[in-house]
Structure of Iron complex outermembrane receptor protein:
Amino acid sequence: MRIYVFITTLLLTSGLFAQSSLKGQIKDEQGQPIYGANVFISDLQKGTTSDSNGNLLLTDIKEGVWKVTFSMVGFQTITKEITFTQNSAVEIVQVLKENEESLNEVVVSASRRSEYLSEIPASITVVNQKQLVDLSNSTTNINEILEFTVPGLAVSTGTFSNWGQTLRGRSLLVMIDGVPQSTPLRNGQLGIKSVSPNDISRVEVIKGATSIFGNGGNGGFINYITKKPNASKKIEGTTNIWGTSNLAKTKGALGFGAYQSLRGKIDKFNYYVSGSYEETGNKYDANGKVILPTYGLDNTRIYTALAKLEYEISDRQKISIGGNLYNSLQDTPFIPVQGSFEVYNENGDYTLTPGYGVEGSIEGQEPTGSKLYNGNLKYNLNNIFDGTTDFTADVYYQKTKNIFFYSDKFENGGQSVINAEKYGLRPNFNTTLTPSESTEITLTYGLDLLKDKTNQGLLDGRLWVPNIDMFSWAQYVQSTIKFNDEWVLKVGLRYDDMNLTIDDYNTLPYSPLGDGNFNSSVAVKGGEIGFDNLAFNAGVRYIKHQEFIPYVSYSQGFSIADLGSVLRSATADNIEDIQLEPAVTKNYEFGFLSKFKNFRLEAVGYYSVSNLGTGVVFDENINSFVPSKKPQNIYGGEVAIDYTAFDNKLQVGTSYSYVEGVTHNVGDENNLTYLGGDVISAPKLTAYVTWLPTNKISTSLRMTNLGNRSRFNSYLDANDNYTFRHTQFPVEGYTLLNWSMNYKLQENISVSLAVNNLLNEYYLPARSQWAAPLRTFTGTGEGTNAKLSVLYNF
């Protein structure tokens, strides 16, 4: 208690005899007002921030000549000496220039506040708006955009599902503006597709275990930062229309889409609204055969909407309300013909025959896909405690409905659906202290309150995963200490307390291998269970020289490892007899950034351990898939290189990601086995060349290469046939080339053409290979396909 009194007293300390003032406006180079820019007089420990009109007012300034610093994340910092005489009112208009260096990209997710990428002792990838616009010219599939731009993220599955698209071999948490979208209590692994790329201003991917956010992110998290209602006119907007088609075969393959956004400023109100609609056609592989429709992207209707309204209560207070809708439904005229494989000998020689689609329908089957809704009410209060602290509080609501494909693995068949509903409250404080000219201390602290209700049933009313009602609260503090503009030390703590109520339920008869061998139903008595955990993170980074900015860090993560999978596979008749424990991950890493005149290099190596696994394994004793109870050790590295030449008219780059992992029985650390493909991705190599021959034309060629991964031995099954275990199937690599070109008709109108899988490569995505023993998910990738789009800004 004494420490809180001490901090409060320190924050309330201020000069009482100043008599002058500073007022004016802060703008960018286009003359647009900058909201939230910092104005600070270090010697007097006084500061303020600009309002939504860029206006600033700082009063009670002592007479003298003082150094005034104007700063804003994403802009170059300027310091000026200003003379203040007794009872004077100094007026100023300050223009800040954008800082375009990639080392100084802005990140808000790592500490729940704005900070520079180069000053964070962690591995982070930021996909900025320019990259999103350029890559969206080729595809609206955000999974494929992130596959190319994020080292350490596994390749896309080629389907709507992101099962197997892990981050450094571990599960990830997906958020929109910090609001969780994933369903960690029963992980349906559909969360990456939850917002239109057209509505994203940037994507922040924090890699490795983290104590900043809670349940579900043992491998890190993806935070989609949506566009803000920033405008200088009453109405501005963007119109984007496009058409798509498969070129390997064009029958029924045409698709189209349209997106419209409007934003504006009216008095103290700022608004942003958008909507989009997209339809996809048939999807064919390189040989013109219908791609397996299970989790497919063919014949899908996608509706999205986003709305934000901000009201400036005063120059220090703002309130905003917003929400978004994402609805993706596949209604395909095709039914799946499952794949097959044959293993010939103990050497593991095999053939793999992919599944495909044929015309037909399943009686009563509903369209598959996701429906999600988000709502958020946010309040900002800046410059409290003598200008040292900003306060933010938000209340959010999120609802998800994931509808899966028809499966005969249920007795009498059926379609399963995950329903999840979340309510949350998050008060958060950011305090900045400057005890000396050479030291800056930033504290981020607050509470996370979350109520999550989840179940999984069949559309006919049968319940597969019982109703799980979770209430969790967490308190956290994150401190950043900056010394002499040379060192950054970051230390954080997070304490989670989770309490779950589980209803009585009966397990469903289920045949996980689809062989007609159904498990018996078990009546399970529910009850209440609880978990708690204290997670810690620490890191240090040396930032004096941009030619070499190294860091080292340690972080912990905490999550309930897909509780729903445990419950639906229960063999005990009482919840108290089911072994439930959280997954705790510890992550160690070292990396560095290097920036020279036209050259940027980033490299990182990591090692993580966990008491439980990330994926599911098949338990032959109970004939069911269950989460892995074995400890896991995962290690790997990532390298990214970017180079520009000829006054940025030529840009080239490459990245390489390698990850490997092993597991062992508890107490038998020397008997190691490799982890399956659902956890560990084969090596990934990406490269790009972008050329701007004129001011109106830009063209880009991008390559994604997946390497081989063959770690597993075949074995004899009960019928004396050679086979491979679930997820432990060899993966053969492939290479894809994508090309795009953009032409500016006018300053605000552009047209683009993109061709994906330029060489019409016939390939099987990684998941289609390592999931082959299930025979349900083995489909080919799409052949050559194209997208033509027109973009208009007004």
Summary: The two ends are 55 Å apart (CA to CA). The helical segments are 2-12, 129-136, 142-149, 384-387, 563-568, 766-770. The first helix runs from residue 2 to 12. The mean pLDDT is 90.
